[in-house]
Amino acid sequence: MMKSLVITSGKGGVGKTTVTACLGRALADLGLRVALIDADFGLNNLDVVLELENKVVYDIADVMENRCRVRQALVQADTRNLFLLPSAHGYLGERITSQNIRLVLKSLAVTFDYVLVDCPAGIEAGFNRAVGACDGAIVVTTPHVSALRDANKVVTLLTSYKIQPTLVINRVRGDLLVDGKIPGKDEIERLLKAKVDGVIPETDGVYNFAAMPRKPFDMLAKRLHTGVGEPFDPAAGYRGFFGGIKKRFRRSE
C-alpha cells in the first residue's frame, strides 16, 4: 500500500525541500518507487533542487485542469524510481484543494510505494491543503530555539488532523552537540513530544543536492520504511581524543 507523507516545517530556511529531495532519493535507492509532489505554490523550487527545471513540460496545474494526465506530468530524476510532479509556476495555488491533491495521490497509488508532498512552511492555507490529503507527516526543523518553537506549533496542529508526525532534525553541528550547546535527539523528542526519525549533519559549503551526504538519509529512509535502526549521530566524530582535535580545528575555521 502506498504511503503519502507531507514534508512540512514551522518556518522557512530549515532545509525542508532539500530533505524532501534527499529522502526521496534514499527511498528510491532501497528499490522503492517514489514520487515527489511540489505543493509549495508560492516558493516552489523542488525542480531546481533536483536539477530538473529544464525537463519540466507539464505541472500539477495542467493535471488539475485536464490538460494532461498525471503520468505525463511526471519528470524522472537521475535516480532510478524517483519522479517529480512539478509545482504550478505562476498558478493561483489557492484554486488547488486538498481534494485535488487526494485525486492525484489516488492516481499515483497504482504505481508508487511512497509519495512525498513538499508543502509551504508555516501553518497557513498551503499547509492545511497538503496535510488534509496525506496520511502521515514529517516535520523538518533545526536544533535552534526559534525553529523548535515553530516546529512545536506544527506538531500540535498535526495532532488535530489525527496525524502523529515524526521529526527530522536538520543542520546539526556535531561539535556543538558534544559540548551541549544545542539540544540532542532525546531532548528534542521530549520538548516536541514526537519521535525523531532522522538527524542530518550540517554540511558547510554543500549546496548541491547531488553532493549531499547520503548516509544520514539512507538511515532515515530505512527507519521510515522498516522501523529498524537509529538516526545518524553527527556527534560521533567529535568524541574521544581524536574527536577533540577535530573539534578544535572546527572552532578555528
Instruction: Please give the radius of gyration in angstroms.
Output: 18 Å
- The CA-CA distance between the termini, in Å, is 48 Å
Total DSSP E strands? 8
Helix content: 25-40%
Biggest sheet overview: 8 strands, mixed
In short:
This protein has helices at residues 16-29, 46-49, 60-64, 70-73, 98-108, 125-131, 145-160, 174-178, 185-192, 215-226, 240-252, and strands at residues 3-9, 34-38, 75-76, 82-85, 114-118, 136-141, 166-172, 195-201.
Structural topology:
Elements: E1 3-9, H1 16-29, E2 34-38, H2 46-49, H3 60-64, H4 70-73, E3 75-76, E4 82-85, H5 98-108, E5 114-118, H6 125-131, E6 136-141, H7 145-160, E7 166-172, H8 174-178, H9 185-192, E8 195-201, H10 215-226, H11 240-252
Parallel strand pairs: 1-5, 1-6, 2-4, 2-5, 6-7, 7-8
Antiparallel strand pairs: 3-4
Structural account:
The chain is an alpha/beta fold and 253 residues long. It contains 11 helices and 8 strands. It has helices at residues 16-29, 46-49, 60-64, 70-73, 98-108, 125-131, 145-160, 174-178, 185-192, 215-226, 240-252; strands at residues 3-9, 34-38, 75-76, 82-85, 114-118, 136-141, 166-172, 195-201. It has an 8-stranded mixed β-sheet with strand order 3-4-2-5-1-6-7-8, sandwiched between helices. A hairpin with a 5-residue loop joins β3 (75-76) and β4. α1 (16-29) crosses α10 (215-226). It is globular and about 55 Å long.
